[in-house]
Fold this sequence. Notes:
This protein is an alpha/beta fold. The protein contains 14 helices and five strands.
Amino acid sequence: MIDQSTKEQIKNELAKYVTHSSSANKASVKLEISTATISKILNNSFDGIADGMWLRVAKSLGIFHDTKWFHADTKPAKKLTHFFEDAKLFGNVFGLVCTPGSGKTDTLDFYLKCRPNVYYVKCIADMNQRDFLHQLITSMAIKGTYRTAYDMLQAIKRHVDETPNPVIIWDELEKGKNALFLLFIDIYNLLWKRCGIVLIGTHNLKSRIELGNARGYIGFNEVYSRLGGKLNEIPVPDYEDGAAVARANGVEEPMEIARIVNGSMSKDGVVDMRRIERLVHAYKQKQATQTATEVPA
């Protein structure tokens, strides 16, 4: 059962999200939760809202198991943010390459929460063009029913033209079908200088674009050209980045910080932020157990 303090936490985060989205209606579309439910929660009318709905709202807001993960300005995070801001402010288009475990997801979550008019879509295997456009329209909180991909693209263009400094962040395109690369060309042409676009993925994204360009696959030379003939490498996290994240999330003892960071580091000195998160969690669980079993003198 969801306790009262957790409900208050969810309500507070929902209020921030509604403010960030500029209206409850837009928040409703993005979260895929009814405006009536949002209104009830914000007005403390908690009765009648099932635990399942509380959990759904919490997960949509990024609240998991009563824990909060705090962002740290690591070198990869600063570089990612630099490209996001450049695309947002000047309508530029970039391709970015991240090493797995570099903290990309945390940086994306933080940026999405802090900046308005940022539209995010993450590709999954077998996603087609219409699936992608549906997710983008949902991210933009555009209401309506559209029969064709062309209609959806026109709705996106109208929304972008009415929005200051919009940016689309397109994650893990390397997982998609070739048709999504062709869709990127259409979106680029439609929104050029109206909206920033950032493609972000692993080295598989770089390899796929460069290979497609080299082999003459349809459209890949155009994709490569629209990215400026370059995919920008984001620096990998190092020891200081790992230590900064551990400190931001409550680890204060220098020896524990060293143990956590060293335990997350590969032989070539690259820190895995997912491993940092696991080790910080284990450290907190251990501390909580020790506190609970201490006997007062």
